[in-house]
Amino acid sequence: MKAYVFPGQGSQFPGMAKDLYENYAAAKSIVDEADAILGFSLAQIMFEGTDEELKQTRVTQPAIYLHSVLVAKLGKDFAPAVVAGHSLGEFSALVAAGGLAWQDGLQLVYKRALAMQKACEIQASTMAAVLGLPDATIEAICAAYGPSVVAANYNCPGQVVISGSVEGIEAVGIQLKEAGAKRVLTLPVGGAFHSPFMEPARVELAAAIEATEVLKPICPIVQNVNAKASQDPAEIKANLIAQLTGAVRWTQSVETMVAMGATEFIECGPGKVLQGLVKKINGESIVTSMELV
After folding, report:
1. Is 67 a catalytic residue?
2. Were 153 and a residue from 16, 161, 243, 287 both cysteine, which residue would form a disulfide, CB within 3.0 to 4.6 Å?
3. Taking CA 16 as the corner, what is the angle to CA 13 and CA 22, rounded to the nearest 5 degrees?
4. Is the Cβ–Cβ distance between 7 and 89 less than 8 Å?
């Protein structure tokens, strides 16, 4: 059984999707239309931009989304039994499964990026990767500190990202090291994604998602906030909205897909980040990149 998974922020690279644009007429058509929808040349930044330019949230999110959608549309024998995406990858996954028009998905992802950027500017906040501690230990230390630091990304066993205020991350980081964490690494991000700090962005995006048509996808989508499979459009919408302030339960999502019978995980999009995470979550799984037609 094949599960198709879609990456999130951090998988971007200079020159991304340029080969697809140059070699596939369908890809060129979609990228050109995307530029027209956005009102600026995302393609130019993807193809010729620097690492720094690609790291801007307003660029990163639509760039990874677009690259992932192209790979899914150009994929050989694309027949998912289940799909999932890491953070913004959930939008790409929903498009690939036929639950959302790619044009609507692009507009939502761009609005999401701008709303998150705006939320980051309201209050200084950040994220840090915690390596080598059980989830429960991290959760307990965050909870003892207070609501300004939370577990935000459960990427794989032994790798959890925490999110919160700058001073909170610093203080909790010291406690996590004292508790035996191998590393606590502050990440080069604009703010505390997947935490209560994103509440202004959640409110802003909720209206846009509610106004967008979501259809029943051709297969279940396992969503980040609860690691459960759904094909119900109303439920999918609610989970997409909740995702901004809720945790990305990637470890649990992969475990759900394995329990559903998934034996092969195919990554659709730039990079191989998710393949590495899946292998750490379930060593018996076959992991590959999407093969194109």
Report:
1. no
2. 161
3. 160
4. yes
Q: Is the pLDDT of residue 240 over 90?
A: yes
Residue 250's pLDDT is what? 98
Instruction: Please pick, among 68, 87, 163, 165, the residue that the annotation labels catalytic.
Output: 87
Quote the tokens at residue 34: 């995307």
- Residues 88 and 94: their CA atoms lie apart, in Å, by 11
Helices 57-74 and 102-122: crossing angle in degrees, nearest 10, is 160
pTM: 0.96
Residues 6+ apart with CB under 8 A from 269: 6, 7, 11, 64, 67, 68, 71, 89, 92, 290
Quickly count: other Cβ atoms within 10 Å of residue 25's Cβ. Answer: 8
What would the two tokens of residue 275 be? 């393949």
* Cα 109 to Cα 115: distance, rounded to the nearest angstrom: 10
Q: Mark whether 87 is an active-site residue.
A: yes
Smallest Cα–Cα separation from 12: which of 273, 287, 290?
Answer: 273
Residue (of 57, 70, 60) closest to 31 by Cα position = 70
* Listed residue (127, 109, 273, 117) closest to 189, CA to CA: 127
Strands 183-186 and 125-131 turn out to be: antiparallel
Considering the candidates 67, 125, 163, 194, report the single residue annotated as catalytic.
194
Give tens-digit pLDDT for 149-208. 999 999 999 999 999 999 999 999 999 999 999 999 999 888 999 999 999 999 999 999
